[in-house]
Amino acid sequence: MICYNKLVLPLAVLLLFFQSWMSYGQQDADFKELLETIKKSAAYDAIKVERIDSLYQLLRLQQEGDLKSRFDLNRSLFFEYRIFKQDSAFKYGIQSKNLAEELGDQRLIAETTLDLANVCVSAGMFSEALAYLNGTDPDHIPEDIRFSLYGLLGRCYSDMADYSTITYFSERYRKKAQEYHQKSLELATPNTWDYFMLRGYLNYKYGNLDEALVDLKPSLDMRQDLRSQAVVNSVLGDIYVQLGDREKAIKHLSQSSIADIKSSAKENLSMIQLAEFLFQSGDVKLASIFIKKANEDAEAYGAQQRKIRVGAILPLIEEQIINQVEKQRERLSQQNIMLSVLLVVLLMLAIITYIQLRRLKRARQALLVAHKDLQIKNERIVEVNETINSKNEELKSLNDLLLEANKIKEDYIGFFFTQDADIFEKFKEFKTRIDHNLKTDNLDGIKYLSKSYDLKKEKKKLLQSFDEAFIKLFPDFIDEFNSLLKEDEQIAIKDGQVLNKELRIFALIRLGIKHNEIIAQVLGYSVNSIYAYKTKIRNKSFLDKKDFDQMLLERTRLKL
């Protein structure tokens, strides 16, 4: 039993570590897929615009055509614009409704009225939406779509409750929303996607999260179109945010955002939810990327309530980024001070070495005189000479190390002073322009300045400068580094690169920076990432892992 217990505990720890590692790996994959999709968003939008242009050209050719064909084309344009641009969607919604009235088709009139109310709710035009919805007689709406009327009323009052700042009204709106949602659920056809989605949304909205999951998870498989996937994943993501399950929250919110981008949905919520969640978790860099994309979408669509929500968090993220830049500047200042102290210590060592050399020189002269005078002590003098020669070799080696250290510190002190001065000048210019815009109340100017300051580019530039300075000192570093690796594990540098991540880590080690925490701070990675990269490289070497760093110092030569 004792042996069994001793075995179980390590296995449990390993299992926990493996699950944690898999969780972070999955989150990285989700973020990578989302970031790649954001890069392609313009291409998806171009496809959407091309489809819209095609429909518009057909509509122009049908200006004198029959009413039904014109109605179908206007309705198709409405659906293309529905989640893409609210003013255009409203325009074609109005035209569709007018044509439906000319056709005298009560079902089409009801559907187009609900279309217009839907756009108004999405755009935050709640009064206009209620005018359409309350002006519609439920008895004139076909039974199979009547649930949509009450669903829209529930959604409208729910959004009004979320954005009302007066408790008295928000409670009234929330009560009405619940009543209309419940009525909509009663009218929905059981065992359909609409039914499960509506029931799951009601449970989610009113706190029954476990019941909501039971309905929403199966609904993911019932409809595979991008819009349905985006809606369901958005709700699931928010549920997991409330349950505190970070991995699943990120997975579903990322998938929802990806579906929104691929379908060119500018009226979306999941990107905002993801940015808020990451900001609260302390991941400011990714939160900044996602909230900026959400802000672009809200501006493009014209959704007032989305702009308000984005406007609440965007300044906080930007303030945090500015604080991080300031902290980085302070760290650079501290590093410069440390380098200055180190230089003083090296100068002191050089003085001590010089004094020792002078003493050794005098001692040697004394020994030579003694050798002439004391032949009988020849054996002892030979022994002393051998000792002195040994010391001279050690001192020569020390001199070489000091020359190398002086060369490195001289070049890198110049490098860091140059970088620090560059950062200071940029920050000074940024602050001057901010002060000027504040004095003139130019908020647009401030927003432009904030967007134009690309921290990722500045970080990349700093690392590029570091790489170039390092290769100037160690021109054969890459070949010498590869000589420590197996033949099939050689590192190849891509076009445009000077060093890659792994080489940059070991470049810092070659400069004498051995602590993972300091390397992580310099390069902007996590400590775990630094440890992983070092382990990965050492596994590629034919050397024993414990000898790798020492051989790195011996094999890589400085250009003096």
Automatic annotation (TrEMBL):
SUPFAM superfamilies: TPR-like. Residues 357-408 form a coiled coil. InterPro entries: DUF6377, TPR-like_helical_dom_sf, TPR_rpt. Residues 260-520 form the DUF6377 domain. Keywords: Coiled coil, Membrane, Transmembrane, Transmembrane helix. The chain crosses the membrane at residues 337-357. It comes from the Bacteria. This is Tetratricopeptide repeat-containing protein. It comes from Leeuwenhoekiella marinoflava DSM 3653.
